[in-house]
Amino acid sequence: MNHWMGKSALERNVGVRGDADLDAAWQDAFVLEVDDQGRFSAVGSLPVELSPRDGRRASDILLGSFDGRPWFARPVLEIEQGDSATWREVDDPWQAPVASAVALVRWHAMTPHCERCGAATVPDAGGVRRVCPSCGLMVFPRQDPAIIVAVLDPDDRLLLASHSAWPSERMSIIAGFVEAGESLEQACFREVSEEVGLALDSVAYVSSQPWPMPRSLMLGFVATTRDLTVHPDGDEIAWGRFWSRSELQQALAEGEVKLPGSTSIARQLIEGWLVGTLPRPD
Questions:
Q1: CATH code at 99?
Q2: Tens-place pLDDT, residues 234-266
Q3: I need a labelling partner for 217 at 20 to 30 A (CA). Which of 207, 257, 267, 268 fits?
Q4: What region holds the Nudix hydrolase domain (predicted)?
């Protein structure tokens, strides 16, 4: 089980959001600088706290408590690449506070105005929402749902596909955003049909993962199909095929195939299938 499937290491502190509470939390806080490109201060992949620390700003975001200390994210214009990392480079358990920091900093940067009246909004409740002083509308962080699905054929082979923008050896499973008025399961059927021309028979939910760049919530599924001929759309997907476990292991060993990063839900679903722990929905 990956850490996204259990209790979060980050305690959100929903009852500690008034100014006095925030000022008190600031006294012993770990403050992480984050820019709107999702980079944060780091040595290697280890988050580095701001030091020396000045007074709390209205734009500072209380993430919650982690490892016994309050954590704040401080939005900054830019962090030098040599002194920074991205959230995908961070190991568990640091991913929980860092993913929240990146998601919230980017959301604040992308949501400066009220969607109802157009007035400038301001951070509220320690940064977990924004409020419009003009019309009173409260705005909460946006996450865009996206499905990612491991497709299995009758012989329990796994479909992998290569995106048109990737090197040909880089492969993953099918993913895409959920359309308005569409269920998660319907999105699985549609995306697989659109991208590789396969008709699914059954779909089952497996697990989820936040993906703050851009601002997605990845919802992982496993599905079955009786179709064996892959028809890449030629737009998003350049090529794809079904792999047996032995074929994929050999291709990985020879460098013929490269999989998604180890922190991604795509990699976790693929590895679950490789070791036989990914359940078939039929």
A1: 3.90.79.20
A2: 999 999 999 999 999 999 999 999 999 988 999
A3: 257
A4: 141-265
